[in-house]
C-alpha cells in the first residue's frame, strides 16, 4: 500500500456488513476537496469547533473525544452509545430506539458547517469554495482497544506540530512515524471479536 498516494476520498470507507448504529468508538477523518486549505483561518476553525461540540445536543448518544482542525481536514474520535442499554435485558434492548448511524452524524456536521460557511462568505467575505466544503466521502476506523485509542489520541493531539509530515499536506514529506501510524491503522482487522454478533441493518 502506498500511504503517500492514498487520499481520503479513495478509501474503502464503509465497512460492509457492520451496523454503524451499534455502540462503538470511531476515528474519523473528513477532508476538503482537492486538499484545499479552506480550514486554516481562525474564524473558520471557531465555527467548526462550535458545530462539532454541539453534536451531542443533536444526538444524545454521541460522546466526543479528541478533535483537531488541520488546514484541509479534521480528525476526531467519536463514540456512539445507546443510552441505558446496559440497564435492560437483552430482550428489551431490541426495543430501544437505535442510536443514529455514523453517516447521519457526519452528514449533519457537514451540512451545518457548510451552511455556516456560506453565511460567512456572504456576510464576512470568507474565501469561497467550489461546489463543496467537504469531500463527499469520509474515512472512519473502528477503535478496537485502549492501546489503539491512546495511540490515535496522541496522533490527533500532535497533528498540528507535525503538519510538515502530514500525508494530507500537499507540500509535506511523510516521515516514518506518519507512515507507520497509517500502516498500523490500515493493517488492523476490520471487525472486532466482541462485535461480530452485532445486528446488521437490512
The name of the CATH architecture of the domain at 22-144 is 2-Layer Sandwich
Largest sheet, spatial ordering of strands:
2-3-1-4
Could you tell me the mean pLDDT? 81
Quick one: overall form? Answer: globular
What is the string of SSEs from the N terminus onward? EHHEEHHEHH
Q: Major sheet: size, sense and barrel closure? A: 4 strands, antiparallel
Catalogue the unreliable spans.
1-13, 83-96, 191-202
Helices, by number, come to 6
Count of extended strands: 4
Summing up helix and strand content along with how strands pair, one would put the structural category as alpha+beta
Q: Under the CATH scheme, which class of the domain at 22-144?
A: Alpha Beta
Distance between the termini: 32 Å
Query: Roughly what fraction of the amino acids lie in strands?
Result: 5-15%
* CATH-derived topology of the domain at 22-144: Alpha-Beta Plaits
Can you tell me the CATH superfamily of the domain at 22-144? Transposase IS200-like
Rg to the nearest angstrom?
Answer: 18 Å
Amino acid at each position: 500500500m502506498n500511504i503517500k498516494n492514498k487520499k481520503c476520498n479513495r478509501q474503502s470507507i464503509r465497512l460492509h456488513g457492520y451496523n454503524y448504529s451499534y455502540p462503538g468508538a470511531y476515528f474519523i477523518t473528513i477532508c476538503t476537496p482537492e486538499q484545499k486549505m479552506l480550514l486554516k483561518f481562525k474564524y473558520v476553525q471557531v465555527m467548526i469547533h462550535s458545530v462539532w461540540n454541539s453534536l451531542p445536543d443533536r444526538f444524545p448518544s454521541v460522546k466526543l473525544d479528541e478533535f483537531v482542525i488541520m488546514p484541509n481536514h479534521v480528525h476526531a474520535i467519536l463514540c456512539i452509545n445507546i443510552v441505558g442499554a446496559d440497564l435492560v435485558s437483552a430482550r428489551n434492548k431490541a426495543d430501544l430506539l437505535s442510536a443514529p448511524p455514523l453517516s447521519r452524524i457526519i452528514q449533519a456536521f457537514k451540512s451545518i458547517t457548510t451552511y455556516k460557511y456560506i453565511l460567512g462568505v456572504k456576510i464576512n467575505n470568507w474565501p469561497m469554495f467550489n461546489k463543496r466544503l467537504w469531500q463527499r466521502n469520509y474515512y472512519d476506523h473502528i477503535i478496537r482497544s485502549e492501546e489503539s485509542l491512546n495511540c490515535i489520541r496522541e496522533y490527533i493531539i500532535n497533528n498540528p506540530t507535525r503538519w510538515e509530515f502530514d500525508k494530507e499536506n500537499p507540500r509535506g514529506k511523510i516521515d516514518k512515524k506518519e507512515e507507520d501510524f497509517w500502516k498500523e491503522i490500515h493493517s488492523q482487522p476490520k471487525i472486532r471479536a466482541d462485535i461480530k454478533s452485532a445486528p446488521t441493518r437490512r
